[in-house]
């Protein structure tokens, strides 16, 4: 029986994790559940799963919260959930840079971190890997692409890998022209063709910023240089990523889109547990197609990969600028092309810096947010 802390229990990944727990109540139990602001939804989950700790990071404890669960609020409470003594695994499904400190805390406490918060590695990859070494913690990816790579590698060393190929669905705008993208609304961008995700991740999928974040994450997770990591558009979302070996063999992990299987693998790794879900049918899957990433229509991808290659605090700046820009797009202050424009403007002003401490990363993050806010206030569409 493994104790599991789920950070972001009310989101899409959190719900997938709880579905996994439902199928294996003899193997996993929820010891801590957290939510950002959705206290009432968290209250219903706490009543059902009976965790020792429930945390609302930004908001009040729901009315009537009782039972054997301890209720807390705020940043320190979130870190307590990430380091709970009964937690063997901490599933970090928080959105954005807010997930960094819980990742660091859990790794320093020797926990397995089932990482769905890619921003942890994007913003502070060296610090995260150092925390894992110092605390004896373990990183196991939850993103479907990185879970696929982990499964394909199956203990193979990085020396045997020629390249990693991350697949991208292409999002809702894969076939839109640049002129059409200029008129795209938040409602348009939130209509993802294959995945059911939260609004921030869905917009990142539409701009392909999400794929840039995943390239950076793959670099740190698997120790592969950026020049050996590629991305390709695969609209069917059946092949979740591929690994080409030095002998020319290409391994791919396949399946119909669901986050429950990557979550299950992260919780049980390296063991495989039975699971009731939609079985893969190659005939039903149909033809599998691939296309190159179009960097001209989706410049956020190139901006993010370039930031990763630059290293230091540049990825943290990219991530923070993107978070602010996406929020303003959803709020109506930026057009869809304005997301990449805002990120590019902020990165263009950054003078660089080493990501050698949490303070340095947080300072870069704060600077990027202020700078992007200034861009948005003065925003005029380029066309």
Task: Produce the secondary structure layout.
Layout: E1 2-7, H1 12-23, E2 28-35, H2 39-49, E3 53-56, E4 70-73, H3 75-82, E5 89-92, H4 100-108, E6 112-115, H5 119-135, E7 138-141, H6 144-153, E8 161-168, H7 178-181, H8 186-189, H9 199-207, H10 209-222, E9 229-233, E10 239-245, E11 250-254, H11 260-268, H12 282-285, H13 299-310, H14 314-331, H15 336-349, H16 358-377
Helix pairs in contact: 1-11, 3-4, 4-5, 5-10, 5-14, 10-13, 13-14, 13-15, 14-15, 14-16, 15-16
Structure description:
With 383 residues, the chain is α/β, with parallel strands linked by helices. It has two domains: 2-142, NAD(P)-binding Rossmann-like Domain (Rossmann fold, 3-Layer(aba) Sandwich); 156-256 and 282-377, Rna Polymerase Sigma Factor, Chain: A (Orthogonal Bundle), CATH 1.10.1740. It contains 16 helices and eleven strands. It is globular and about 55 Å long. It starts with a strand and ends in a 6-residue tail after the last helix. The model has no long low-confidence stretch (mean pLDDT 95).
